[in-house]
Fold:
Amino acid sequence: MRSFTVDLSDAVDPLVLAVDVGSTASRGGLYDARGLPVAGLRHKVPHAFTTATDGTSVIDPLRVVDEVAAIVDALARPELAGRIAGVALDTFASSLVGVDAAGEPLTPCYTYADSRCGPQVAALRAELDEAEVQQRTGTRLHSSYLPARLRWLRETEPRLFDEVARWMTLGELVVLRLTGATAVGTSAAAWSGLLDRLTGTWDPRMLAVAGISTETLSPVHHPDHPLTGVTTRWPALAGAAWFPVVTDGLAANIGTGATDARTVVASFATSGAVRVRVPAEVPELPSGLWAYRVDAEHALLGGALNDVGRGASWLEATLRLDDVDLDAVLAADVDPATPLALPFLTGERSTGWAADARAVVAGLSAATTPAAIARGMLEGVALSYGRVITELTRVAPVPEQILASGRMSQALPHLLQLLADATGVPVTPVTIKRSTLHGTALLALETLAPGTERAAPTTAATVEPVAARADYYAERAERFAALYSAVVG
Structure:
């Protein structure tokens, strides 16, 4: 396998300093004009969401600001002055922070997994035509989006709500604190559920539903419209453009090398997603999917799962699988005695949007082992990916290939065999590390170095579906749908 890195002495200018704020850590690295990571110039700061049984999922926004500053401290070396032409940032999607007029946070950062606004979701579904909202904004009414979250804050903490001068994504706040200026990238705005997917502008009807106005939001910038002329404390970044924050979902698709609508990208991280880039004027959306406007011409069509890496970690900790090789469990042949599972530990996003759904394991017997339960849960994850892909084929071409990326695709490589078998589509693992970070750098390079040829990401051998397992997974998919209908509704 060829190396996907470059020594600083051989790096082609201009360089980009890219930062990815994910669910488990903030990561940064330098990339050259070909999109190659510069060897030895990367930095990582771990973190974790604060969670509770009531649905709380938050993180201290100023902690993340400090993390990103530490990353820039480590990478923006004085000797690189004049070589770093841009700083690009992505974060997990659907984040929200309320700040005062001076940019000081008044709230924690609410994450996509915070489900406390479930009652407001139900109220909005009774109040609005959800199908019409989805067609206009590309999003359903769900706890991971901001209309319900903002209404929850307005109803439960009205004094705090009224004190907020600006509502921001986490990435906007980071850029504001480090540069004094900010903007929101089109994709980050789209993931809020407050953007008109066809015009790329804030949707006045959803702002009214949320109880806010455009004056409390940042301007929306396409990825090729960076902030320039900003001043920071890093001499090496003098004159560098700061790009508007984008979502990790967009960055992950770009970073894996997907080039057309017949190549689907499946991300396997703490959460997961299936995405394909299509023209912005998407026809009528299937109810199980979202469509996020990402730039002047394109949208990402797909669906998301809350619990992938989170699910695997829960299995290992809760079932005490210390002496069990989880990947070896997935490598075994299918077994009809495997329990059937709905893997919704923190609620469901696509395809049913049941924020209050919880995991269900059916078919347990006295002979069922912890390993079999784990296998059933992860088969449930693969079937959930498959449900999204089935919805995609209603409006996009049948996929010829699935590109798999993310740390869980490498930590549990046989999970990709489950995906191939459950969908009947070949799966090609993208083996470069930090593909999301790579995509964030590539987006900036489209503006900074448009004429430079990019290096293709490295891949491993394609995982082909096992034809003999097709009937097993077809039967599982039918039982999954029946169990979902009976338990979740």
